[in-house]
C-alpha cells in the first residue's frame, strides 16, 4: 500500500511541478492531466474493496479509460474518480491531519488493502 501511495504522490508532484514550470516559462503547448482513480477492477487490485461501494465503487477499466481520454482532450488539470473523491481532495488540504485521518478511517481507506491478493506470480 505504501509503495503504491508513494509512487502516486511522486507522480502528482511531478505533474504539478511540470505544469508550474511551463506556466512560469509561458510555454502553453505542454499540458498535464493528473489522474487519481480509486480501485479499478483489474488484477492489480484483486481482493481490494470499498467499505462504501455506493459512494466509492470499484471502477471498470473501460470507464476509467474513457474518462482519462475525455479529460486529456479537455485539458483538464486533474481527474479524480469517482467524482465523490474530489470532496476528500479538497478537505485534505484544509483540515488538520488528525481530522483527515479520522475521515480516512471512517471511509475504510486505511484498510483497503487488508484483503489484497494482487497478481499471481508467473513461473
TrEMBL record:
GO MF, one annotated term: oxidoreductase activity, acting on the CH-OH group of donors, NAD or NADP as acceptor
UniProt xrefs under InterPro entries: NAD(P)-bd_dom_sf, SDR_fam
Superkingdom of source: Eukaryota
GO cellular component term of the entry, any: lipid droplet
Gene3D superfamilies in alphabetical order: NAD(P)-binding Rossmann-like Domain
PANTHER family to which the protein is assigned, alphabetical: PKSB, SHORT CHAIN DEHYDROGENASE_REDUCTASE FAMILY 16C, MEMBER 5
Protein name as catalogued: RDHE2 dehydrogenase
Native source organism of the sequence: Thalassarche chlororhynchos
Gene from which the chain derives: Sdr16c5_0
Amino acid at each position: 500500500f505504501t509503495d503504491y501511495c508513494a509512487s502516486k504522490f511522486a507522480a502528482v508532484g511531478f505533474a504539478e511541478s511540470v505544469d508550474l514550470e511551463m506556466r512560469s516559462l509561458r510555454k502553453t503547448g505542454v499540458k498535464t492531466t493528473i489522474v487519481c482513480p480509486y480501485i479499478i477492477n483489474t488484477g492489480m487490485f484483486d481482493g481490494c474493496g470499498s467499505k462504501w461501494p455506493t459512494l466509492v465503487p470499484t471502477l471498470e477499466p473501460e470507464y476509467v479509460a474513457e474518462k482519462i481520454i475525455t479529460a486529456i482532450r479537455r485539458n483538464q488539470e486533474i481527474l479524480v474518480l469517482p467524482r465523490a473523491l474530489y470532496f476528500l481532495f479538497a478537505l485534505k488540504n484544509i483540515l488538520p491531519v488528525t481530522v483527515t485521518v479520522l475521515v480516512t478511517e471512517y471511509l475504510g481507506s486505511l484498510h483497503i488493502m487488508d484483503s489484497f491478493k494482487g497478481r499471481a506470480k508467473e513461473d
